[in-house]
Amino acid sequence: MDINRPELSVLVVDDEAEIRELIAQFLSLIGASATLADNARAAIKEVQGVRPDIILLDLIMPGQDGFDFLNELYQLGTNGGGDTPVVVVTGQRDPDVEAQIRAAGFGYLSKPFTPLALYESIAEALDQPVPINRRLPTLPMLARPVSWS
Fold it and tell me: Is 122's pLDDT higher than 90?
């Protein structure tokens, strides 16, 4: 995390607008800023411009998918943002895919998820507690799954 930036900067990459917005709303509750991208190509441009602290990445997207994005991100190198921590947020529940993602050093969160699980995934990927700038809702609310409808 860039200490010159007062808040956590998160790039949310998902082809579903509802999911991007739900995640962005939660991030605003903890005082984080969200940059939203609806596809892998736009996300790579954001990584190069915004240089987020962490990326939340949908795996299954039309066109370039999350795997394509991860390959492009790696090619950016450490000076281009290629070392940015990533949490893959996906509806795909394949233990082999999860194992591959984790073995590659990325976080993994399956949909649907609770806000608390999202928070914990971000903290784990950053390997540090995430500062909270505002009061979070009560713990029982955080433990409820996010509604996708």
Answer: yes
